[in-house]
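Sequence dictates fold. Below is an illustrative record:

_____
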Amino acid sequence: MKKADWRWYATGPGHAVALTRGDHAGRLVVPANHSSAPASESPDSGQEPKYYGAHAIYSDDGGRSWHLGFVEDSYEGVRNANESTAAQLPDGRLYFNARNQKGSSPGNRLDAYSSDGGASLEGRGYVEQASLNDVPLVEGSVLQVGGEGGELLFSGPSVPDDRAAMALWSSADEGRTFRKALTLSTRKAGYSDLVQIDGEGVGVLYETGTRTAYETIEFRRVPLGSL
């Protein structure tokens, strides 16, 4: 699954998704990211941010075998999809949200959709998500809340130029737009992950601290009614 010209390779770093609806119900989908080496004739060193990309791997047999799904490998320096996260929407499609690793496009978040279980991306692939412009350059997490009327949630720091103030955003239109719903803390904050605990609440696991974002890992239970 790792292409010959890929160097850095990582899954997540958040959770994977087990599909429960649609033609690919039962499939396991893991959002992942990589970096690529420049062409042999290129003057680039390979350290340029444009060589970052996102991809997915999937399994249809409970994890016994894995296949490479979509690959975002434009390497044009405008949208540099990196650490990615995924959720299955109520209509069965997959929603992907990724860190924009120093791309020249505005904002630090990109998103995309897949209607074939992560094998490919719809339309132009990853595009800018302007309603998450308060999020700095960092990993984030998404979660589709189950149950009737459940919204799509995003977690991440909420200071554009600093990893601080972990917050939750909510989307009622399947990720087209997000609104900031709750700030958990004003302290430093880094990576995060989301989980649905039950029908009344979600959990947020995140890095945090007073002087840096990496002093401790905290778990917060958030009632859905507070969002």
